[in-house]
Write a structure and sequence with these properties.
It is built from six helices and 13 strands. The protein binds a DNA duplex (16 and 16 nucleotides) through helix 5.
DNA sequence: CCATGTACCTGAAGGC
DNA sequence: TGCCTTCAGGTACATG
């Protein structure tokens, strides 16, 4: 489910809720979700700060860190003390704070993971630079493309070069920059690479402003749906006319994923 | 190095 | 009303 804009929305909200709250205990209802790999105990530690790298949520405690990945259907919900009980029909892990509030991990498909670690670095070794990191530039992005012979869809989905893009925002960014998803990364011209970089930034910041996209399961930390799904040009728009040329948007299987694009507007670089 | 398939899970939707 | 298949915002791992 969630890609960079959805994860960013959750992190921004949690920044206003979690710092300073002290963990009383942790309830684990599905063992595989919570990997407790730190020798330091989690009880009695306070949340210090929040961070994000790609789709990973980082919750820094005093002596260790929690790394959360929502995968397809994970939700991180903040349960205020005393207010109505937040909906969590598939609760897997609950972090209960001493003041009576709680952070709930709800996840229908059980793919989501929470790692309790000494240090975040080990887990993030193979994750590329965050897609909205201000130090990432169009020319830096072009250099990364030059280093790879993967098709551009797989390149963007891999998280190895740039982290945070998923199936929705890859398809939207490729459409808006007029690049065919099967294009070979190191064959993409400098000007097209610049276009792709700029459209990635535009697509992601627009989605963040609209609190992410809800297809089915995504909810923010308050349990609310996003709004960016109302503005897709190609994702799940197969059959509808392309906004540029009017030909129907196509859906194919590519890089193992449903892939939406316009075959007349998007140029194939090979 | 790269592409493809499978596994991990549940539930919704569509075909018959 | 079933029953069966396919598909889903992701990633890790095995195999050519």
């Amino acid at each position: 489910m969630p890609e960079l804009p959805e994860v960013e929305t959750i992190v921004r909200e949690l920044k206003s809720y979690l710092p300073g709250r002290k963990i009383k205990n942790v309830t684990v209802l599905w063992d595989k979700t919570f990997l407790n790999l730190s020798p330091v105990k989690i009880e009695d530690q306070s949340v210090q700060s929040l961070g994000r790298r790609g789709k990973y949520i980082l919750i820094y405690l005093e002596r260790s860190v929690l790394i959360v990945h929502l995968r397809m259907t994970g939700q991180l919900l903040f349960q205020q003390k005393g207010s109505g009980v937040i909906r969590a029909d598939h609760l897997r892990v609950a972090f209960n704070f001493q003041d009576g509030s709680a952070l709930l991990f709800n996840d229908v498909r059980k793919f989501g993971r929470i790692y309790h670690l000494q240090n975040a670095d080990e887990k993030l070794q193979k994750v590329g630079i965050d897609a909205v990191d201000p130090t990432l530039t169009a020319s830096g992005f072009y250099r990364m493309l030059q280093s790879s012979k993967m098709n551009i869809k797989a390149f963007l989905l891999s998280q190895r070069f740039v982290a945070g893009m998923g199936n929705i925002y890859v398809d939207e960014s490729l459409f808006r920059s007029k690049i065919h998803p099967a294009s070979v990364s190191d064959k993409i011209k400098r000007s097209a690479a610049k276009r792709l970089f700029d459209e990635m930034q535009a697509v992601l910041s627009f989605a963040i402003e609209h609190m992410g996209s809800t297809i089915s399961d995504y909810r923010d930390a308050n349990g609310k749906v996003g709004n960016a799904q109302n503005f897709f040009y190609v994702y799940q728009q197969q059959g509808t006319p392309c906004v540029t040329c009017g030909n129907p948007i196509k859906k194919i299987k590519h890089a193992g994923r449903g892939t939406h694009f316009c075959e007349t507007c998007q140029k194939l670089y090979v």
